[in-house]
Amino acid sequence: MFFQDPKLQYEVTVEQPDPHFAKLLQQAIGGQEGEMRVALQYMFQAWALPEEYEAYRNLLMETAAEELGHIEMLATAVTKNLRDSPKEMGDDAQETAAAASMTGQNPRQFLSAGESAVPVDSNGAPFTGNYIVASGNLAGDLYANVMSEAAGRTLATRLWEYTDDPGMKDMLSYLIARDTMYQNQWLEALESLDDPVPVPASFPQDEENQEVNYTFISTRREEQPNPDHPWTEGEAPDGKGQFSYAADQPGDGNVVAPDPDPMTSDDPNRTDQ
Amino acid sequence: MFFQDPKLQYEVTVEQPDPHFAKLLQQAIGGQEGEMRVALQYMFQAWALPEEYEAYRNLLMETAAEELGHIEMLATAVTKNLRDSPKEMGDDAQETAAAASMTGQNPRQFLSAGESAVPVDSNGAPFTGNYIVASGNLAGDLYANVMSEAAGRTLATRLWEYTDDPGMKDMLSYLIARDTMYQNQWLEALESLDDPVPVPASFPQDEENQEVNYTFISTRREEQPNPDHPWTEGEAPDGKGQFSYAADQPGDGNVVAPDPDPMTSDDPNRTDQ
Amino acid sequence: MFFQDPKLQYEVTVEQPDPHFAKLLQQAIGGQEGEMRVALQYMFQAWALPEEYEAYRNLLMETAAEELGHIEMLATAVTKNLRDSPKEMGDDAQETAAAASMTGQNPRQFLSAGESAVPVDSNGAPFTGNYIVASGNLAGDLYANVMSEAAGRTLATRLWEYTDDPGMKDMLSYLIARDTMYQNQWLEALESLDDPVPVPASFPQDEENQEVNYTFISTRREEQPNPDHPWTEGEAPDGKGQFSYAADQPGDGNVVAPDPDPMTSDDPNRTDQ
Amino acid sequence: MFFQDPKLQYEVTVEQPDPHFAKLLQQAIGGQEGEMRVALQYMFQAWALPEEYEAYRNLLMETAAEELGHIEMLATAVTKNLRDSPKEMGDDAQETAAAASMTGQNPRQFLSAGESAVPVDSNGAPFTGNYIVASGNLAGDLYANVMSEAAGRTLATRLWEYTDDPGMKDMLSYLIARDTMYQNQWLEALESLDDPVPVPASFPQDEENQEVNYTFISTRREEQPNPDHPWTEGEAPDGKGQFSYAADQPGDGNVVAPDPDPMTSDDPNRTDQ
Amino acid sequence: MFFQDPKLQYEVTVEQPDPHFAKLLQQAIGGQEGEMRVALQYMFQAWALPEEYEAYRNLLMETAAEELGHIEMLATAVTKNLRDSPKEMGDDAQETAAAASMTGQNPRQFLSAGESAVPVDSNGAPFTGNYIVASGNLAGDLYANVMSEAAGRTLATRLWEYTDDPGMKDMLSYLIARDTMYQNQWLEALESLDDPVPVPASFPQDEENQEVNYTFISTRREEQPNPDHPWTEGEAPDGKGQFSYAADQPGDGNVVAPDPDPMTSDDPNRTDQ
Amino acid sequence: MFFQDPKLQYEVTVEQPDPHFAKLLQQAIGGQEGEMRVALQYMFQAWALPEEYEAYRNLLMETAAEELGHIEMLATAVTKNLRDSPKEMGDDAQETAAAASMTGQNPRQFLSAGESAVPVDSNGAPFTGNYIVASGNLAGDLYANVMSEAAGRTLATRLWEYTDDPGMKDMLSYLIARDTMYQNQWLEALESLDDPVPVPASFPQDEENQEVNYTFISTRREEQPNPDHPWTEGEAPDGKGQFSYAADQPGDGNVVAPDPDPMTSDDPNRTDQ
């Protein structure tokens, strides 16, 4: 159950409004690394957890609600960058020029949304549920969350580089800090799990093929000697096997599809029903 | 540059062909956790890496080529499950019944592909580039790869549970083993990086907001005392901060959008141009 | 800014768990008429409203937060229908049969999510930002909201027809009631606006073509006399014009594209650069 | 059954071709508010209507055919803006500059379509069937149509603001007028229905939860007194209930997923099959 | 400009309504091989053609309008298969069973559309503008049209196999015949073009690399002798070159990305701004 | 089974790096006409072919592997155009200007990928499995391949026009030549098939409607005399019929949907259950 308050989680100011930056901010709203993705991802993950994982479910929901507030901050940043920029639009003498300028921006922010945020990424592609990872396996989900926050923080630091506006830098500095926290909290949660690797831990490992489960198989055209990388020799990180090296793929079995049903195929010899 | 050989990486047999299982296998071909995603993801990651990361680029390309061969194995498994199942189709007396049965399967395998694999997931949704994570940041990408293989192995073990066919169980046992290797190799590669957390390591951490970068901020409606979870106190996994706990969000700034350009807004008071 | 509480907005019980019904419920989660759509739609609409529309912004955010809780209720309904249904899975002797059964359900609920809800619709297609309407024009948005809740209530009543489970019927009875309220509140909000039709009210109506702004233009191949429908004669609902009838389209101007740039076209006469 | 004639419904001229405006016009072709959406939407709605609704089916098909002609007008406007603009392309000395300019436009209009219209929106995202609302419920569909034409007219007026070209302004003035007519005709059609609210009217309203069907439930974190808005007190627009106000959500039932099937879950305690 | 008439192009009858077949028919409506695709494809192609190609533009528009009528026929076939099938729904005693049955069908036909057609394919994935090919190059477009009608006819023959219903067989026999005509008309139009291969004919062929424009380059891991296939020796079909065979790829240049901008990369050595 | 080598198939150089051209190149990577599409398309086609089509399966796989190498070349071209362009980014004094410039480019190349290629098209829309045609019918697939390479070569020649960079022109000259070869090889393969038109050849042609299988049916509003085009008279290209002309559509049967199930419809007369 959710509640809301008409305040931002953290203040958003823009001193030099820049409609171009409003386009870039869309990546953090509706993009692969954006806040819509993580807010919804944490919810779906939480709703799949049974009673014994209550602490983790709470952790996920606590964070999900915060991420919703981050979408709100970013949407506010978009409207401030677009609407407080008087020169971009509406000047009769420059309407065509404004149109030209706008095309390099995000046209739907203007045409579909009246100078406000839209649920798309910085390229203009719509947000999609395909971004959301919620597997019902807690360890796998926590790795997905570390990854999501790594991607989110990388994005936020890049946005921070692309603006000189003190207000935007301050907002991004806040969001970058939160992503530092999130990466750490998901890693800590992973550490609190007993023996999570390889995911899923519940699968009986003796049922997997024992010939290739710790073997680096090279796909180089010309066979190469073992390059002695950390991933071709020595103990594997899961502590359950030793890395080995194979210079060639096993290669077994022909790539031959069975004959299709003659009635639905294009067999030229077929003459009637 | 790529090469190919008309052999499978590992033999694929089906003893009791099952068109229903052919539908489930699509998740491992064109799904969020599937082989198309990882094959392409590793390529795009590799192509972004500069010279100093040659060992990692090679690692990524070695694995990408192997994953292409896994798509091939799974596509072969699909055709064998579909085409060697004589009873499902083509019997004049049962055509309508066959149609009924087919709708519970993946209709496009029949209608669009003549009983073979299609680039979609088990729900029938098309493969999309949205699944691919390739950020130009090696540490972030390696976390994405651990996550992808965790998801892939979880999927493969679930498929293993849903079949009794010895051939399918054998193929999946091979793929599960490879995912064990992959999880380990990406974790090993992460360990070989110097100080990857928080990602991106290149961002000067003193530029991030120092008030909230290790603080668990609760979003519970009613303020709660510190629950003393590993992620609300103690040292953070990155070794660069101490977790703390805040019972409430900072809450600052109003959620008020600026006035839009009057010419593009719906201001009821506007009467003319 | 958002808050949460680990209770459902309204209790969700399932007496006769039905994995098939869990598939149908996905439409109300991630579908065109679903709760993800309205929750996000109301947020994006609210974030575009300037200060003078504070009452409407609050109205939108009040409702958005409630809709988030409805996704939660539906996701809970999905897990209860899937997981409390012991016969469907895991029985060694019936694994293949279970697979067959599962394909008629939503495979990703099992394969991608471990028997829980996924951000897709009842056909398995992913949720998309394309569903969200937030135009920056309040009247237009309120019509979109009436429509969304009409679609949502229609869906909920259909789901109510397709189940006999008392728990599911009770949950749906609650959601149907809320959609009654929502339809009424959005209509009431529309009535509170001054002169909203035609949307957008801010456009000077004398700038629109005065020949065809209240004319029903027939596209019937054979010209027909005025059928004397309410939309071909009499006063228009906006009170600003009289309906008239034209038996044929104006038809003016040729459909001829200009010549393309010869360098990028396929002009067979081009012989060199 | 459809027919066509090689004339435009209304003449399209461009005096000052502007490739940037060609990009913006895409929103009216393949966008959420575009003509492809309404043309197809009205068809699908019509095809679902049984005999007794013949007048409405005709109304829908009359309009659908006209909308097809509007796509044609807009596609013509795109080619005229692109191809009659000699400076943008093909000048050997400025090819790189042209490429730079083009990227701010819609690259696929050039690269995929040889300077003509493409079935995408102004951001370049492809048209999708997800936009189409055709519910089989006439009242709900008519609200969807009012909304679609409100969105379409809002878009057209924004495009009108972004161009100074007399030809484009004239074409848009025509389309804006048609959208005025369409909004009025769909509202008139709604009025001709008996008692359409709440949609669907066919559902027996005493089956919905009687506690909350006219209650405004606040989701504010801190309970607030009744704000005495038109949607928190007084008679509801459907004439079937009185608005009331609840300062808090009912809140009932725990968010606890049942235990998943142990074979498909990640239960760390599981040690074998 | 388009017109319509409230008759079907060809009568549609269903003797044994089958909701399962209604799902399969969706592929011919909203699928990759479907009628929505070709109707829109032919329009966009026509709208890009300049005056000298008037005969081809007319050909395309003549066919586009007919294809719209085919969507109508198929949508009618869907409603007849769904609604004249009394046993599937609404029987109080079998509601849960009906739900079970429905999940193997297309749930959105019921839930979103009240037992009518939806703009999706047989897997339930939405129609997308991505299917549409309209390149501004007539020869390329005609090949796309041959291909589209080949795919469409293949689909229609497969649907013909999956039904025993005389009405459905008759409708499909009509559509298959039309696809025979279409394939022939597009091939005839191709033949009427002067020298269309290789497409685009306008490109000066001496500007393409002359070493590899008629060479079959093998990618086999182990070099193979020339297999003497028709595509490795002899005259090429365009009459402009002789096929040759290369046993290995040229292989030149390293796959090394330049160093990224240090401010946006993850360079571990970067310590400050 | 696939192999790789850390060399490019053909060298890629860029003399005057241009981030705008990097955006255009995306069309050849992740677009409708791009290399991801053909590489995957040829694989899926090959995997569907039974033993008797071994020569064609090999042909498809030989080419698929080469296309993978073309994605690699294009991704390398993207990074070189982006990263060797020092002025675009990182200059503190011009950060806002850089952001402005970047918005006209492909923001995700910067924000999501650290100045490298992304799996999207030139408009920024993600690659999708919807592009892939693999029908299980060899003749249909070969037409799809001719079309795909025609589209690909058209795109490559357009890119060639939009750049002055000698390195880019050289790379594109190579790719254009390969597309010449591909078009020829697929046409040659089509010619090697016995009687492929109309596709699918396996369908007994006497089962199709004999009235309309070689008739051009005009959809012009006003009936026109036979225009005596090559597609309205004379022998059809398949040699199996004579073209004829019909000035009007047959027109038969009403567009009337049956009554829907009263429980799921919006019948205003329904008053109870």
UniProtKB/TrEMBL annotation, chains A, B, C, D, E, F:
InterPro entries in the cross-refs: Ferritin-like (IPR012347), Ferritin-like_SF (IPR009078), Mn_catalase (IPR007760), Mn_catalase_dom (IPR039377)
Membrane-crossing segments per the record: none
Ranges for region Disordered: 84-105, 217-273
Record Pfam families: Mn_catalase
Name of this chain's protein: Catalase
Organism: Natrinema saccharevitans
Bias-annotated ranges (Basic and acidic residues): 219-232
Family as reported in the entry's similarity comment: Belongs to the manganese catalase family.
Lineage: superkingdom: Archaea
